[in-house]
Amino acid sequence: MRGEILMKNIILTGDRPTGRLHIGHYVGSLKQRVELQNAGDYEKMFIMIADTQALTDNFGTPQKVRDNIIEVMLDYLSVGLNPEKVTFFVQSEISALPELTCYYMNLVTLSRLLRNPTIKSEIKDRGFDNENKGIPVGFANYPISQAADITAFKANIVPVGEDQLPMLEQAREIVKSFNGIYKCNTLVMPEPIIPQNKVCSRLPGTDGNSKMSKSLNNCIYLSDDSKTVKEKIQSMYTDPNHIKITDPGKVEGNTVFTYLDAFSTDKHFEKYLPEYHNLEELKEHYRNGGLGDMKIKMFLFNIMEEILQPMREKRKYYEKRIPEVINILKNGTAEANKYADKTLDEVKSAIGINYFSDESFTNEQIEKYDR
Ligand code: TRP
């Protein structure tokens, strides 16, 4: 019985194809997706490449979006997401999504959209609040379009990073409002799931900056080679006052320790630093002085390599089979379309605008004019 309920889970999530995925994406979301995939408690698991959403703030540089579709697919496949278990698809190919968006737009006010904290900070970051720029309607609207992404597939579980919680809140409001206004239970209420380890949902850049970004050049990418990873770890921000090995060091705000919080396990200590039992002991030694940055950086490097090396191998395999990768995406998109089209039909009939597939429409109109 319990099994039957669990098998009804529909999991959906996605990413904007605006760049290669990095280890922040990995601990913040990809790792959890692989775990969900392997746990198998679902009827369907969808992963969407959100190119339409990426265009809402990259409409002037579409080549960037185009170039990152397969890049992101390779990232997915390299972390161990399995095309036999997951349906991968491209957002812009699902025509039911903009149609659903259109009906949901009536249910949300402009002021509600602009109250979304993630949207607010993104407007600032992108300079849309400058007097000569302005907020593109498509951009402000993307939380509604994201509600369409989620509801089109009747997803009840949406694994996301913390920054996406306001989007899920918006989607939930739309579901409640739609089902209420049209007196139906067509739309399914989605629940977000976020990583349990706090550090994982907001991993800082290697320079200690709270945001990882390509322009800051502070990310370790899943596709970085060993040498690049080593260089990036060697130049990581630690404690600027920890100059001599004997100096006491600070652990808080020390990026290497933040990364160790996110990635290290007691097993890693056993394997690479057996003189310590766990991270607490290592931190204690660092605080007291006598532990050099090089040693903690090498430890982190060993852990990262253990995680990244198998990914590099899988990536190499798929890089030699690009047509196969494109086919995975194409077939997934065809399948996704079936689900979304079905929901669109249900949505239209809930509103009552399914004129040609609804016999009662014909009868109703005959009766009306039969005077
Ligand atoms: N907004 C998400 C991000 O930037 C990507 C996304 C688009 C998404 N549609 C979605 C995530 C639906 C989960 C569900 O990461």
Question: Largest beta sheet, briefly?
Answer: 3 strands, parallel
Distance separating the two termini: 55 Å
Tell me the helix content: 55-70%
Outline, from the CA principal axes? elongated
| Strand arrangement across the biggest beta sheet | 1-2-3
How much beta, percentage-wise? 5-15%
Alpha-beta content class: mainly alpha
> Which hetero ligands occur in this complex?
tryptophan
Pattern of helices and strands: HEHEHHEHHHHHEHEHHHHHHHH
Count helical runs.
18
What is the CA-atom radius of gyration, in angstroms?
24 Å
Low-confidence stretches: none
Q: Whole-number average pLDDT?
A: 95
- Count of extended strands: 5
Oligomer: single chain
Summarize it.
The protein has helices at 2-6, 23-39, 51-55, 62-78, 96-104, 110-114, 117-125, 137-140, 142-152, 165-181, 198-201, 226-234, 255-263, 266-272, 279-288, 293-319, 322-351, 359-369; strands at 10-15, 44-49, 87-90, 157-159, 191-193.
Please characterize this protein's 3D structure.
The structure is a single chain. With 371 residues, the protein is mainly α. It has helices spanning 2-6, 23-39, 51-55, 62-78, 96-104, 110-114, 117-125, 137-140, 142-152, 165-181, 198-201, 226-234, 255-263, 266-272, 279-288, 293-319, 322-351, 359-369; strands at 10-15, 44-49, 87-90, 157-159, 191-193. It has a 3-stranded parallel sheet. A two-stranded parallel ribbon has the order 4-5. Helix 4 packs across helix 16 (293-319), helix 12 runs antiparallel to helix 16 (293-319) and helix 13 packs across helix 16. The mean pLDDT is 95. Tryptophan (TRP) binds at residues 12-16, 50, 53, 146, 149-150, 158, 160, 164, 167.
